[in-house]
């Protein structure tokens, strides 16, 4: 697997360094993988030796063969699919193949123990190494041989026991070069086959007939074999970045120690930096290496580089380690392109199992020829008298430098923590890159105003032309204290400067184009004055008023998340994504037999399943946030120290770098003091009205012992703290809040919004469930205009009313003015031109009275929704939205405690005051009363005696179950009741749910609210005096959509239950009163529905006000009593009236069966008489009597 892994690493390095044709290298790796799998299959099939194999071995071999064959086929097929655009995805798949192969290669039970190498001093074991036996196992077949068998390998020893884990065990205790071979006794003749030439065995003297034993030692005979002297080795140590913070200041004093063969050297120590630039050449002389030249060229010894932190007192602290292999030049090779001089490469530094930075270096190994050092390339390059004997990296290897100008935008500092128990009062920011830097202006009073007075400063520095080799930029914040003292507050190293490089404006202007937005489908929805059409018999149409009172903000919300149950009628609604980015749900007519259902149009918000920052690159289009770190870094084994714990504040600003020699065009209005940061707003304090909307929370972590929580909202912004403790929601993990909060704050002092969810407790303090933090300042100043989302449609009334104090025309005019664009120019025919682009949209709007008037707001809004298409200054504007943010707990970092759906609007106080906040309070259920009157029951039963009664209840209200009286001694299977059930309930019309509030237990403090579907359950039972009642059948009616009742009992069939999709459906909330026959069904022994009866019922729905005006009693009671049913005045008791019972059995219930039996008996009697009289009759005929 090593060659395949190296190949994938090469592909990743090609992509990282932006070299050409990474897909070609990946195709080669996949081809090697496919061929390797085929080779393994052929070798495995040739090996027919089954001796010593258990059933587990044979089954595992089958599994391996099947998996390897599958991987080989997939790799071969994937090879043809590799393209430049899919290289990254294919690399992941190839890595999955190698991971699976590596898993298959590991034996579940090791049959051969591993090899342990111990280093012992004074009888004490001080270091060890463990070598897997499979790596040194010998086989005559090259493909089956261990990867390290018969090779000289470098092995690093580690500390044994518990001391070997953690930082103490990361340093190398010893490095040894060892030759290992493991094989069968019959293969012992090959155990030295891989040893380099020139070694002679020293054996013990043995007597005749004794077996051959391994040698006790090996001696290199330099007199007979030519010795290779590699006495010149050059290590080019240029720089490192993102090193581990080893000091309490959050910085380090790093130096590098390089080990090769039996020698080691160190670089100079650079103080207080995490991104050192050593620019140092280390030369190793008098290094002796033994072996064949070809072997050393192809597989040179490993170089070990360890990074340490120099401390004034005590020994140096280990920071990380990396390994490298040098490029080897033999004496007969020319020192020139393409292999020499070597190029600088980045090597990943590891500290234990985690990464700890990168090192930029190059390594070369040069063989001394017959002429000695005269054949070696000279060490030329710049000399530095101040550095003494330290040699710099030569010019051929040192990157080519160019002069760059780095402009720094100093905006402000945020959330600075105390340093040495003292508050930060007068901070300053120092910027440094490649030995050059600049300092910001001093903030005189951090509490009063944490922004800088001078915004832009710059400095020039020599940087490599290769952007991948740019050194990091260091940001340090110091606090200027009394008596000229400076205290380090925190630091940050910007490792990659590529995103801050100014690329220049795109000079290719976009072609003239027209974007047509046709809103006619929206206007058609309302059909003039909000009417819908209803089909009648004879294909005649009549107009009926459309009830739009149900449409509110929640209609938009549910339409956005596609859970609006009003629109879910067998997937009957149609969602069309219009050109504005929003979704318009069009009216569509769906036919169910003879009923047509119409769905009205609902405009939707954009609902983001994650934070808004992730969709808009953290709103760092021009203002960036850099975390400031202080303190020692944490390791994987140290869970108490994380990067978040080391954050001591933020620096807000930006960077812009470009070559000084670049010919940059300057506008006449170019402000030289602002450099490349033109047209940015001022950073003076500004008063803001922040309006926070919290919709709901989902999947909250339980906070009570009953597995639930009692959540409520807490808002903290600056010095303002709001706790909505009185409106906590009892026993809910998915609470629906529907709250809005207005807070007046001043930027930049109050710019971090914290929204928390607490668990209310009756006794003790409330528990924090989770919280989320928002940086409002970046949102406010972003070019994406995150202050108030841009809606997909403009309206002046209704649920979709425009809520921004600035109208679309004003917003568009301001954006064009700030971006120095030509426009907007409004023309006839619903056209608007901005720059060189034309947009079209409707120009009419309807007011509250239904009157239409001309407006340009739709035109402007169309341009805003397509602002990303505007050349040069265009970007995507934040739409009207709802964002979903994770809730985190400070004591449980990284573990999500739930999610919260919300959004934030911000309005400057110096502009037009916004309107009132949107009403997003949860919908209030409407009180209803349902009267169900049962008249007749027909049952399919075979028993003689029936004692019928009915159960009825609304789902979720089982405790309010109501029963009819018992129809005793039913002879015909028919039961007459004339009984009324009355169910009061609260109903949410828009969500089509019944709202029930009840206590979960008798010890509960308050009621819990549930929302359940509106379903009516009806059951029929056969009453028994001395045993349990017998269940006969049931039906459940969804009151929003259930089959229309049959007009007669004969038309009532089981298909009304089993085939609902083909039946005409009705809703009690629209039809109010429904009467008909419905089937009772039950499951038989084969778990299939069978018809067990039919019921005639009448359903009547009344609102709470109507029920109060015309009350009705339950059963047949007052008020509005019902008449008693017309039941037969008979009593069927067989022991009192046996003849009557027999008459009923014979004449009524089994009439036809009795007729059939009597007819059969008569036929049998006639046949018996015929057979009896036939012989005598025949005798008489024969005798002539």
UniProtKB/TrEMBL annotation:
<keyword id="KW-0812">Transmembrane</keyword>
<dbReference type="InterPro" id="IPR037721">
    <property type="entry name" value="Ferlin"/>
</dbReference>
<dbReference type="GO" id="GO:0016082">
    <property type="term" value="P:synaptic vesicle priming"/>
</dbReference>
<dbReference type="GO" id="GO:0005509">
    <property type="term" value="F:calcium ion binding"/>
</dbReference>
<keyword id="KW-1133">Transmembrane helix</keyword>
<feature type="domain" description="C2">
    <location>
        <begin position="387"/>
        <end position="512"/>
    </location>
</feature>
<dbReference type="Pfam" id="PF22901">
    <property type="entry name" value="dsrm_Ferlin"/>
</dbReference>
<dbReference type="Pfam" id="PF00168">
    <property type="entry name" value="C2"/>
</dbReference>
<dbReference type="Pfam" id="PF08150">
    <property type="entry name" value="FerB"/>
</dbReference>
<keyword id="KW-0472">Membrane</keyword>
<feature type="domain" description="C2">
    <location>
        <begin position="210"/>
        <end position="340"/>
    </location>
</feature>
<dbReference type="InterPro" id="IPR037725">
    <property type="entry name" value="C2F_Ferlin"/>
</dbReference>
<dbReference type="InterPro" id="IPR037723">
    <property type="entry name" value="C2D_Ferlin"/>
</dbReference>
<dbReference type="InterPro" id="IPR035892">
    <property type="entry name" value="C2_domain_sf"/>
</dbReference>
<protein>
    <recommendedName>
        <fullName>C2 domain-containing protein</fullName>
    </recommendedName>
</protein>
<dbReference type="InterPro" id="IPR032362">
    <property type="entry name" value="Ferlin_C"/>
</dbReference>
<dbReference type="GO" id="GO:0048787">
    <property type="term" value="C:presynaptic active zone membrane"/>
</dbReference>
<keyword id="KW-0677">Repeat</keyword>
<dbReference type="GO" id="GO:0035612">
    <property type="term" value="F:AP-2 adaptor complex binding"/>
</dbReference>
<feature type="transmembrane region" description="Helical">
    <location>
        <begin position="1152"/>
        <end position="1172"/>
    </location>
</feature>
<dbReference type="GO" id="GO:0007009">
    <property type="term" value="P:plasma membrane organization"/>
</dbReference>
<dbReference type="InterPro" id="IPR012561">
    <property type="entry name" value="Ferlin_B-domain"/>
</dbReference>
<dbReference type="Pfam" id="PF16165">
    <property type="entry name" value="Ferlin_C"/>
</dbReference>
<dbReference type="InterPro" id="IPR055072">
    <property type="entry name" value="Ferlin_DSRM"/>
</dbReference>
<feature type="region of interest" description="Disordered">
    <location>
        <begin position="1106"/>
        <end position="1125"/>
    </location>
</feature>
<dbReference type="InterPro" id="IPR000008">
    <property type="entry name" value="C2_dom"/>
</dbReference>
<feature type="domain" description="C2">
    <location>
        <begin position="671"/>
        <end position="789"/>
    </location>
</feature>
<dbReference type="InterPro" id="IPR037724">
    <property type="entry name" value="C2E_Ferlin"/>
</dbReference>
<dbReference type="GO" id="GO:0030672">
    <property type="term" value="C:synaptic vesicle membrane"/>
</dbReference>
């Amino acid at each position: 697997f090593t060659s395949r892994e190296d190949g994938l690493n090469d592909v990743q390095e090609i992509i990282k360094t932006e070299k050409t044709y990474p897909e070609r290298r990946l195709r080669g790796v996949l081809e090697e993988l496919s061929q390797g799998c085929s080779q393994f299959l052929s070798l495995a099939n040739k090996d027919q030796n089954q001796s010593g194999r258990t059933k587990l071995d044979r089954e595992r071999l089958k599994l391996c063969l099947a998996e390897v064959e599958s991987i080989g086929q997939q790799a071969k097929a994937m090879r043809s699919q590799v393209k430049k655009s899919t290289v990254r995805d294919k690399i992941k798949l190839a890595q999955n193949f190698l991971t699976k192969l590596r898993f298959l290669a590991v034996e579940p039970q090791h049959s051969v123990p591993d090899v342990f190498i111990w280093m012992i001093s004074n009888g004490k074991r001080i270091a060890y190494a463990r070598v897997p036996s499979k790596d040194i196992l010998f086989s005559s077949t090259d493909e089956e041989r261990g990867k390290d068998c018969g090779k000289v390998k470098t092995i690093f020893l580690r500390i044994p026991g518990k001391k070997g884990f953690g930082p103490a065990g990361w340093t190398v205790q010893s490095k040894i070069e060892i030759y290992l071979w493991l094989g069968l006794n019959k293969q012992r003749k090959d155990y030295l086959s891989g040893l380099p030439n020139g070694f002679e065995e020293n054996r013990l003297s043995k007597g005749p007939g004794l077996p051959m034993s391994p040698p006790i030692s090996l001696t290199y005979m330099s007199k007979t074999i030519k010795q290779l002297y590699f006495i010149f080795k050059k290590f080019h140590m240029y720089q490192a970045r993102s090193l581990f913070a080893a000091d309490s200041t959050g910085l380090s004093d790093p130096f590098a120690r390089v080990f090769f063969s039996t020698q080691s050297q160190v670089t100079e120590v650079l103080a207080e930096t995490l991104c050192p630039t050593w620019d140092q050449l280390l030369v190793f002389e008098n290094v002796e290496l033994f072996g064949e030249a070809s072997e050393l060229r192809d597989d040179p010894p490993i170089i070990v580089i360890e990074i340490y932190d120099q401390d004034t007192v005590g020994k140096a602290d280990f920071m990380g380690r990396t390994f490298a292999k040098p490029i080897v030049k033999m004496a007969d090779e020319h020192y020139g392109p393409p292999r020499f001089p070597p190029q600088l490469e980045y090597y990943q530094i590891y500290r234990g199992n985690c990464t700890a930075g990168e090192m930029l270096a190059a390594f070369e190994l040069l063989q001394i020829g017959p002429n000695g050092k005269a054949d070696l390339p000279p060490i030329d390059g710049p000399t530095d008298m101040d550095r003494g004997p330290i040699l710099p990296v030569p010019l051929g290897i040192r990157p080519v430098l160019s002069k760059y100008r780095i402009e720094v935008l100093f905006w402000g500092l945020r959330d600075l923590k105390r340093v040495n128990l003292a508050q930060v009062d007068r901070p300053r920011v120092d910027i440094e890159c490649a030995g050059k830097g600049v300092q910001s202006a001093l903030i005189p009073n951090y509490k009063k105003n944490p922004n800088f007075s001078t915004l832009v400063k710059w400095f020039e520095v020599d940087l490599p032309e290769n952007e991948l080799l740019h050194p990091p930029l260091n940001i340090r914040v110091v606090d200027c204290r009394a008596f000229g003292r400076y205290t380090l507050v925190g630091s940050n190293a910007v490792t990659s400067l590529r995103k801050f490089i100014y690329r220049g404006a795109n000079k290719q202007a976009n072609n003239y184009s027209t974007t047509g937005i046709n809103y006619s489908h929206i206007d058609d929805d309302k059909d003039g004055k909000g009417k819908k059409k209803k089909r009648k018999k004879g294909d005649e149409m009549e107009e009926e008023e459309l009830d739009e009172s149900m449409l509110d903000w929640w209609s938009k919300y549910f339409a956005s998340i596609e859970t609006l149950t009003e629109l879910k009628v067998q997937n009957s609604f149609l969602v069309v994504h219009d050109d504005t980015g929003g979704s318009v749900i069009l009216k569509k007519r769906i036919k169910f037999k003879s009923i047509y259902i119409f769905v009205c149009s609902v405009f939707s918000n954009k609902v983001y399943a994650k934070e808004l920052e992730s969709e808009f690159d953290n709103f760092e289009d021009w203002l960036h946030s850099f975390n400031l770190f202080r303190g020692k870094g944490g390791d994987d084994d140290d869970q108490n120290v994380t990067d978040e714990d080391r954050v001591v504040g933020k620096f807000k600003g930006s960077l812009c770098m470009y070559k000084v020699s670049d010919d940059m065009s300057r506008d006449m209005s170019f402000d030289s003091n602002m450099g490349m940061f033109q047209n940015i707003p001022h950073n003076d304090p500004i008063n803001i009205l922040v309006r926070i909307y919290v919709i709901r929370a989902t999947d909250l972590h339980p906070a009570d012992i009953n597995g639930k929580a009692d959540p409520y909202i807490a808002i903290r912004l600056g010095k303002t703290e709001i706790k909505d403790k009185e409106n906590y929601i009892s026993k809910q993990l998915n609470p629906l809040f529907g709250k809005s909060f207005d807070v007046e704050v001043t930027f930049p002092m109050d710019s971090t919004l914290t929204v928390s969810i607490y668990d209310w407790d009756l006794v003790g303090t409330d528990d924090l469930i989770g919280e989320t933090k928002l940086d409002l300042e970046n949102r406010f100043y972003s070019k994406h205009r995150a202050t108030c989302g841009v809606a997909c449609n403009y309206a002046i009334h209704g649920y979709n009313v425009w809520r921004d104090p600035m109208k679309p025309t004003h917003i568009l005019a301001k954006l064009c003015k700030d971006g120095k664009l030509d426009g907007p120019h409004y023309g006839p025919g619903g056209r608007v031109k901005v720059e060189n682009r034309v947009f079209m949209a409707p120009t009419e709007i309807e007011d509250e009275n239904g009157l239409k008037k001309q407006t340009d707001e739709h035109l402007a809004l169309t341009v805003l929704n397509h602002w990303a298409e505007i050349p040069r200054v265009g970007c995507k504007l934040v739409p009207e939205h709802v964002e979903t943010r994770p809730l985190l707990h400070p004591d449980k970092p990284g573990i999500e405690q739930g999610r919260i759906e919300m959004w934030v609007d911000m309005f400057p106080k110096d502009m037009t005051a916004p309107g009132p906040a949107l009403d997003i309070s949860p919908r209030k259920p409407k009180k209803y009363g349902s009267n169900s009157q049962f008249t007749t029951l027909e049952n399919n039963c075979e028993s003689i005696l029936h004692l019928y009664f009915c159960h009825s209840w609304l789902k979720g209200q089982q405790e309010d179950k109501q029963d009819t009286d018992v129809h005793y001694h039913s002879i015909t299977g028919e039961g007459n009741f004339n009984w009324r059930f009355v169910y009061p309930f609260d109903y949410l019309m828009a969500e089509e749910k019944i709202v029930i509030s009840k206590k979960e237990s008798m010890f509960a403090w308050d009621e819990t609210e549930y929302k359940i579907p509106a379903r009516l359950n009806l059951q029929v039972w056969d009453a028994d005096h001395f045993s349990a009642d017998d269940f006969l059948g049931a039906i459940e009616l969804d009151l929003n959509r259930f089959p229309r009742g049959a007009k007669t009992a004969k038309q009532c069939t089981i298909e009304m239950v089993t085939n609902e999709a083909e039946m005409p459906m009705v809703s009690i909330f629209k039809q109010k009163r429904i009467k008909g026959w419905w089937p009772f069904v039950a499951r038989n022994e084969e778990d299939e529905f069978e018809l067990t009866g039919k019921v005639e019922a009448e359903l009547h729905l009344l609102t709470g006000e109507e029920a109060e005006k015309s009350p009705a009693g339950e059963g047949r009671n007052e008020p509005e009593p019902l008449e008693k049913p017309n039941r037969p005045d008979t009593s069927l008791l067989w022991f009192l009236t046996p003849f009557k019972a027999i008459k009923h059995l014979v004449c009524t219930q089994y009439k036809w069966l009795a007729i059939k039996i009597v007819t059969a008996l008569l036929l049998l009697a006639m046949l018996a008489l015929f057979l009896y009289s036939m012989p005598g009759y025949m005798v008489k005929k024969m005798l002539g009597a």
